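QUALITY CONTROL LOG
STEP: pairwise intake check
CHECKER ROLE: data steward
CRITERIA: each record must contain a sequence immediately followed by its C-alpha cells, with no blank fields

ENTRY 1 OF 2
RESULT FIELD BELOW
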Amino acid sequence: MSARARSGAALVAVIGWMFSPSEVHAQEAPGLYANVYLGPSRLSSTGLTESRPAGGRIGDNAKFDGGIGFGGAVGYRYGNGWAAELAWDYRRHGLKSVGGTPVDGDYASSILFLNGYYRFPKWGAIRPFIGAGLGWAQEIDIDIERNGRELSYSRSGGVAFQAILGGEFELSSKWSLVGDVRWMRVGSRDFKAEGAAADGTLTGQLKYQPMSLNLGVTYRF
C-alpha cells in the first residue's frame, strides 16, 4: 500500500471513530446544567439615517468599535451528545462614525435564545461541539451623541438566529471550561425614538450581525 493510500485509510478510520456511537467516547451523563460566558464582540457596519431639528441630518454607513457580550443559559444534556437550553444574551458595541462623521454612542441588544447543541467525542482533552439557536429580540437600542446631545432609539421583537462552534474542557465531574465563537443575525425592524429623543428620527434597514468570541464555565447538576 502506498503512503498516500495509508494516509487516506488512517483519515477514514479517525473520522469513523469520531462519529461512531460506541459508548467509550460518545456517552455522557444526562442531566441539567447551567452556563455563563463573557467575551469580546464585533459588529458589522450598517446603513442608517438620523435627523433632528437641532443638529440636522447624518446618514450613510455606520461603523462600530469593538464591544463586549455576556450571557447565561440553563439546559439539559440527553446523554447521547445532544443538549437543549434556554439562554439570554447581551451585547454592547461602541458607535464610531456615521457616513464618515465621528459620533459617540452605542448599539446594544438583549435577546432570548432556544439553543440546540451536539457534542462530538473528545479530541484529546477537548470535546468539540456545534450549536444553533432561534431567538427573540427583547430589545435592541442605539444611542447617538452629537452636537452635545444624546438621543436614543430602540426596537423590540423580531426573530434572531445564531450559529455556535466551540469546545469544552472538563475540570471535574461537575465543572467545565467552555470556549466558543458565535455568529448572530437579527431581522430588520423600524426603530422608535425614546423619551427626550421624540424630536429625532432614525430610518434605514439597520442590520444587527455581531460575532463574538466567548469563554465561560458550565456546571452540571
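ENTRY 2 OF 2
RESULT FIELD BELOW
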Amino acid sequence: MTRYTSRSIFLHWLSGGLLAFLLVTGTFVLSDIPNTVEKLGSLKIHMILGIVATLVSVVRIFVIIKSPKPEVLLMSPLRAKLMHANHIAIYAVILAVGVSGLMLAQSASLGQMIFFGVEKELYSSFHDFGVGVVHGLLTKVLLFLVVMHIVGVVSYTLSHQSNIIKRMWF
C-alpha cells in the first residue's frame, strides 16, 4: 500500500484545518480582543471548534492504530525516530491543549456564560489562571511541532525527489 486509508486522510486534513484555524485565530485574534461581552461570540466558536478538534484527534488516534500503514519510507534510523516522536508529540499536545482549554473554560466560568447565559463578568485576563498560561504555552508548542512536521515533509520530498504528500492525499 502506497498511501494511507481514505478515512485516515480525511481525518488528517479535517484535523489539520481545524487546528490551523484554532491556532491562528486563538493566537492572533482572540488574544488581542479585550475580555468583554463582545468577545463571547468568538470564544463560543473557538470553544466549540476546540472540542470538535480534540474529539476528531481522539478518533484519528484510534483510526491510526487500527488502520493498515503504507510502506515504510526510506530514511535514516535517526530521522525515522524523530518523525515518529514528532507525530506522537503532536497527538499528545493536541489532547493536552484540548484538556487545558476545557479546564480554562471551567475555571473562568466560560461554559456557563456562553452556553447557559449566566451573567458574570469576564476575567480581565485568562492568564490569571495557571491553566490559561499552560493552554497558551501548549498552543505555541503545537504550532512548533506542526511547523516541524511540514518542514520534515518538504525536506524529505526535496532530498528524495519523492512526492510523499501523495501518501496523505485522496
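INTAKE CHECK: passed for both entries
DESCRIPTIVE NOTE, ENTRY 2: The chain has a mean pLDDT of 95.
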